Amino acid sequence: MRRFLVLLTVVVAVAACTPDPKAPPKAPGPKVADLWRDFPVTSALDRPLIVLDPLPLADEAARGRVPASSAVSSAAPPSRQLTVQGLSRYVTLTSARDALAAIRSQTAHAAQEAHVTGTALTVSPFRTDRGPVELPAWEFRLAEGGTVRWPALAASHFWQLGSIVPSTLVGDLSVDGRTVSATFTVSWGMPCPGTTEPRIVPTAVEYPSFVSIGLKVSSTEMGDCDQRVAAPLTKATLTLQEPLGNRVVVDFAGRVVPGY
Description:
By secondary structure, the chain is mainly β. It has two helices and 16 strands.
């Protein structure tokens, strides 16, 4: 069966179009700059947090449930100091009512509502593009069992909270100044015998607010035989023209590359 090479054709949750699987690979996709050109990179203290966890966080007992609308407190706790990657800043917290509204908006598709029996302001680990971070979080206990949590920081401290989806084809990111290392997964079959094997090159494309990394290939022709599954590439190291700084690292489809 004739198959064409599909390079990083994943659906971006934040308004990207699905690439044409028969189109030649691009580096990056045409919509990526639209997604990330406005990301602020002025300083680490002002840099928004990019949460990669699927929100809200829910334990096993609460999965598939959305908290019902409840009379919870509308008072926001006092601002507090937060340290991220060795840098401290004061952050504004949101109320339990606002957090519950955000959860309900995010999980409107959930099949079953659950009654809220209590709330607590706690601390919870969240996965970000710069590694795990302990953040204040509102926890909602459900009468039907389990808890759900939502970050207690005001939405202005985040970049598109609840909408970011991590890359599944590029991961294990590590950064040291201008040096970026990651593991790249080949998402296509191996070429058939007698078909010229494509040249695959890990590539970085730099912009002022983000860096896009992925695989460029010399050919999309795989041949007519049954395809064999390709293994992930070993970790590749790329050298940037400028230190990464506060820029975001994304794949060619615009999904955030997890790591650190």
